[in-house]
Amino acid sequence: MRIAPRQKRIAEIAIGLGLFLLALLLEAESAARLLLFLAAYAVTGGDVILRAARNISRRQIFDENFLMSVATIGAFCIGQYSEAVAVMLFYKIGMLFQDRAVEKSRKSIAELMNIRPDYANLKRGDVIDRVDPDEVNVGDVIVIKPGEKVPLDCVVMEGSSSLDTSPLTGESMPKAVLEGDELLSGSVNLNGLLVARVKKNVSESTASKILDLVENASAKKSKHENFITKFARCYTPAVVGGAAFIAVVPPLVLEGAAFGDWIYRALVFLVISCPCALVISIPLSFFGGLGAAARKGILVKGSNYLEALADAEVAVFDKTGTLTKGTFKVQEVVSKDIYNNEEILKFAACAEGFSNHPISLSIRRAYGKEIDAALISKVKEIPGQGVIATIDGHFVAAGNGKMMQMLDIPAEDPVDAVTVVHVAVDGEYKGYIAIGDVIKEDAVKAISELKAQKVKRVVMLTGDAKSVAESVALSLGIDEAYGGLLPADKVQKVEDLMAGKSPKGKLVFVGDGINDAPVLARADVGIAMGGLGSDAAIEAADVVIMTDEPSKVPVAIKIAKRTLAIARQNIAIALGVKGAVLALGALGIATMWAAVFADVGVTLIAVLNAIRVLGSDL
Amino acid sequence: MKRAFKLEGLNCANCAEKMEREIKALKGVNFASVNFMTAKMIIDGDDARFDDIVKAAQGIVARYEPDVVVKKA
Fold it and tell me: B39 contacts in A (CB within 8 Å)?
């Protein structure tokens, strides 16, 4: 069914409407009136009848055109001229609006996903050509001007700029890029001129991968969509069957029943017999939800996962890299003796002065001063324990409890830190440095918003010590935390939690997507964080959060709930109105006018309602 | 082999649904989708039969919506 150019359709409707109104002015039952009605019908409904005829020749009977044709021609046959024309007119007007609404929603989804590059500025020697991104190979040099989209994943060779990554991440803060930084396709260069070397071709680049993911996501259908598909398959035959029954049986059985009256009621059925409102609006709601989530940097790999997210009951977080940054920081220095904290830090920093271990780095960062290499000698690193060195003539040992044991120096581990570096000088215990993982800025907000979204249990799993798990959980407001877990234990824990939830509720696991693939797979919905640029995470999870923010998890749930609410509203509106008009039609109360509303009017309402998913400001 | 097609002028959601079902049932098709919203058809089928599959799919599309133009995406 090709859309005739809009003007033509509007003109047909206008002429039809004019002829129809003119006919209404004429004397009833005059031949001229009938002629005018027929003319109005031909102008507005001619193409519908032609299409119906063509489709019958292609063995497509129960289609919309056919049903509309039968309904209106039937109305003519029983002398309901004005209704026949009016039904066709309203049908056409409704279709016009409906197509517009669909077109508009297609457009807004396309805009939402407008990250596909249109061209690349390929640099060969001194010549710069504007080419199709498909023609650019890995290793080629491209130029990205201010205001342009980054066409392919590449690395900056020259220039600096700030980059708008919001089309990929939903993050509005521009990101500064310098020589050597990686650029992801789909982000927009805001100010400086960048020359970059291409790292990946179009199909491997981030923008294409994201688009593929979102477009393929709607193929994984939700239960609601499957229900609608099945329902639509039976609905039309059932309603048409009902119409046939009503037209024939009651007039034969009931005394005094007129054929014309019952045929009219059957025609009302035929007008409502297309399941279009449902078939369009439910997938549209889900597609809109997937698009809205993608806009926030949340890639949902299927409508079914969106549906599951809306029923999230248990949220399980991995700790390191998910709720915490996975980078170490000195949290406190505790001195035992006359030594002050500064001295302990200094000795530790000097002893660890040549190490690149993350813990050594965190101590040097905390010390913050130049280390005089001339003071340090006889450095010896003992794997799994720490470092011993001679500093300014003193024998210094900096390491964990095992090292202190080995040196026979009494030391006690404090309860609530990830890692402790004890410091002993000349065989005497001086104090310790407690080093912890840094909690992400938005982690507290993430947990409190999850609770606001009625997630009943929020659980944290970690391989770190139990005491660490508990102290992090406490500062985040998490009710349950389990520490000292090996990867296999995490799977077991998730299975236990799955067994403990209600049958309808869903378990969501959030991890960094690198080490937790088995857990991601086991959960109802596996969410991987920090997916930008990490293929492994994108592969393993059902939902990928492009940024490192755990607060995107409640956002995803919010979008999912909103999507589901709108989909349910649409099912209720469409089924409710159609059911009501069918019932009233059978009783002879509903007219064909009501039937047209129940058909195209409801579709229009449902489509407009579905578009709200996109506009939702979350 | 997996390929995507653009269905220009796809205008009937119910038909898209029916097309998808029929294309999925074609011999040699591993996966197929006809997305009404993006007006895209994705077919994943056996390499050896792929040309036949595409031809058959085009026939199915034409039967439901004769005015749709199938283009490579």
Answer: 106
Alpha carbon distance A299, A307 (integer Å): 14
Give which of B6, B10, B14 to mutate to test A binding, by max A Cβ within 10 Å: B14
* pLDDT tier at A1, thresholds 50, 70, 90: very low
The size of the A-B interface in CB pairs under 8 A is: 65
Domain check: are A17 and A97 in the same one?
Answer: yes
Listed residue (A507, A109, A539) closest to A290, CA to CA: A109
Q: Are residues A248 and A353 in the same domain?
A: no
Residue A517 inside a domain? The answer is yes
Question: Is the per-residue pLDDT at A29 higher than 60?
Answer: yes
Task: Spell out the long-range contacts of A24-31 with Cβ–Cβ below 8 A and sequence spacing 24 or more.
Answer: A24/A82
Entry pTM: 0.79
Residues A435-494: tens digit of each pLDDT: 877 888 898 999 999 999 999 999 999 877 787 788 888 888 998 999 888 878 888 999
Residue A214 lies in a domain: no
pLDDT at position A364 over 60: yes
Q: What percent of chain A has a predicted confidence (pLDDT) above 70? A: 95
Q: Can you say how many angstroms the Cα of residue A158 is from the centroid of all Cα atoms in its chain?
A: 35
Residue A116 belongs to a domain: no
B12 CB neighbours in chain A (<8 A) are: 1, 64, 276
Across the beta sheet with A506-511, the strand order is: A298-300, A543-545, A525-529, A506-511, A312-318, A457-461, A480-482
SS (HEC) of A52-63: HHHHHHCCCCCC
Out of A140, A164, A318, A524, the active site residue is A318
Q: Which domain does A495 fall in, by range?
A: 298-323+440-546
- Take residue A241 and report the two structure tokens written for it: 């069957």
Q: Which domains does chain B have, with CATH numbers?
A: 2-72 (3.30.70.100)
Instruction: Name the region of A232 (left: φ>0; alpha: ψ -120 to 50; beta: rest).
Output: alpha
Q: In terms of Cα–Cα distance, which of A380, A404, A407, A406 is closest to A391?
A: A380
ipTM, two decimals: 0.79
Structural domain contains residue A132: no
8 Å CB contact between A555 and A294 = no
3-state helix, strand, coil in chain A (%, to 5): 50, 20, 30
Measured in residues, chain B has a length of 73
Contact A220, A308 (CB under 8 A): no
Pairing mode of beta strands B40-45, B29-35: antiparallel
Same domain, A225 and A80: yes
Exposed / middle / buried, residue A451 (Cβ in 10 Å: 0-12, 13-18, 19+): middle
Rounded CA separation A581/A133 (Å): 54
Instruction: Report the interhelical angle of A259-271 vs A223-253 (nearest 10°).
Output: 170
Q: Please identify, among A546, A576, A595, the residue that sits at the C-terminal boundary of a domain.
A: A546
Q: Which residues of A touch B38 (CB under 8 A)?
A: 106, 109, 215, 218, 287
Among A380, A406, A439, residue at a domain's last position: A439
> What is the number of structural domains in chain A?
4
Residue A598 has pLDDT above 50, yes or no: yes
Residues A486 and A607 in one domain: no
Give yes or no for a contact between A73 and A83, defined as CB atoms under 8 angstroms apart. no
